[in-house]
Design brief:
Elements lengths: L2 H4 L4 E4 L14 H4 L8 H8 L6 E4 L11 H10 L3 E6 L4 H9 L5 E5 L8 H16 L6 E8 L7 H11 L3 E6 L7 H19 L3 E2 L9 H5 E4 L4 E3 L10 E2 L5 H14 L12
Parallel strand pairs: 1-2, 1-8, 2-3, 3-4, 4-5, 5-6, 6-7
Antiparallel strand pairs: 8-9, 9-10
Cofactor: [4Fe-4S] cluster
Keywords: 4Fe-4S, Iron, Iron-sulfur, Metal-binding, S-adenosyl-L-methionine
Pfam families: Radical_SAM, SPASM
C-alpha cells in the first residue's frame, strides 16, 4: 500500500497533553479526558517517524506546555524536517520562552477564545516572548492569535483584534468551533465584514475559515493522534478510532481512515458538522 503518495494528509496533529491549568467553560477537555495525561515520548516518535507528513501541529484537548517534554518534541519534529506549530493559552509561555525560541518551532498560536479569560499575566507573557525574540534577533517563530469562533465571543471580536494588533503578532487566525450551527453563518458574515474593515485600517494580517465541504478541510488535511496513540478523524471525534499506533500498522490505520472518508456523508455528526 502506497501510504506516502495516496493516503497521508499533510498535517499530523498530536495531542501532547490532556492536562490544563485553566478551566474554560466552553472547552470539551473534561468530556474527552477525565484526568490530565501526557503523551509518552516513544508513542510520539512512532507517529512522527511515519513518512508523508509535512507539518506537525502539537495541540489537542489540553495545554501543550503542561507536557514537560514539549520542547523536546518540537526539536525532534524539526530535526525530522517538519514545519512545527503549537497552540497555547499563553499562561506558561513566559517561563518557557528561552527553550521555545531555540526549539525550531515555526509558529506559536496564542488562543484567545474568550476575552474574560485574557489576563494581564497572559498579555505580559506574550509581550515578553516578543521582546526576547527581538532581543535575540530571531525571525521565527511567527506568532498568531487564534480565535475560535463561538456564540459567546461574537461580540468581542473587534476588541480581540485591537488587543492582537497591540501585542504585535504576525497574524490573527479565525476558525469555527464545534458544534457550528447554521444560524451562526449570517452573524459570522457580519463579523468578518468588520474584521476586513479593521485590517484595511491597521494592516493586521488575518486568515478566515474556508467554506465548509464534505469531507471537510480539517479531515482532508489532518490526521489527529490522541495522547494515548489513538488515531481519529479529528480532535472532535475521539469516539471514532482508526487504530492505535502502538498496536496496528500505519498502513492499517490509514486504510481504515480512507474507508471512513468514503462513508463520512452518512455519519450523523460529520454530515452536519459545519466547521
Amino acid at each position: 500500500m502506497n501510504t506516502q503518495n495516496k493516503y497521508v494528509p499533510p498535517i499530523l496533529q498530536v495531542e501532547p497533553s490532556t492536562d490544563c491549568n485553566l478551566d474554560c467553560p466552553f472547552c470539551f477537555r473534561k468530556k474527552y479526558s477525565q484526568k490530565g495525561e501526557n503523551i509518552n515520548f516513544e508513542v510520539f516518535k512512532k507517529a512522527v517517524d511515519q513518512q508523508g507528513f509535512r507539518y506537525l501541529s502539537l495541540h489537542g484537548w489540553g495545554e501543550p506546555l503542561m507536557n514537560p517534554y514539549l520542547v523536546d518534541m518540537i526539536k525532534y519534529g524539526a530535526e525530522k524536517g517538519f514545519s512545527v506549530n503549537f497552540t497555547t493559552n499563553a499562561t506558561l509561555v513566559g517561563e518557557k520562552a528561552e527553550g521555545l525560541l531555540s526549539s525550531g518551532v515555526g509558529i506559536i498560536a496564542f488562543s484567545i477564545p474568550d476575552l474574560s479569560l485574557f489576563s494581564p499575566d497572559i498579555s505580559g507573557n506574550i509581550k515578553y516572548f516578543h521582546e526576547l525574540k527581538k532581543q535575540k534577533g530571531f525571525t521565527f517563530p511567527k506568532t498568531y492569535i487564534n480565535i475560535a469562533m463561538m456564540e459567546c465571543n461574537f461580540d468581542t471580536v473587534e476588541e480581540t483584534l485591537s488587543i492582537s494588533n497591540d501585542l504585535g503578532v504576525d497574524a490573527v487566525n479565525f476558525e469555527r468551533s464545534y458544534p457550528w450551527k447554521p444560524e451562526y453563518t449570517k452573524e459570522e458574515e457580519k463579523i468578518f465584514r468588520k474584521v476586513n474593515d479593521f485590517t484595511e485600517k491597521t494592516g493586521l494580517k488575518i486568515t478566515l475559515p474556508v467554506p465548509h465541504t464534505l469531507p471537510c478541510r480539517l479531515f482532508n488535511t489532518t490526521l489527529f493522534m490522541r495522547y494515548n496513540g489513538d488515531m481519529t478523524p479529528c480532535c472532535y471525534r475521539p469516539d471514532i478510532v482508526f487504530g492505535n499506533i502502538n498496536s496496528e500498522t500505519f498502513d492499517e490505520i490509514m486504510h481504515k481512515r480512507n474507508i471512513f472518508r468514503e462513508e463520512m456523508a452518512e455519519d450523523p455528526i460529520c454530515s452536519v458538522c459545519g466547521i
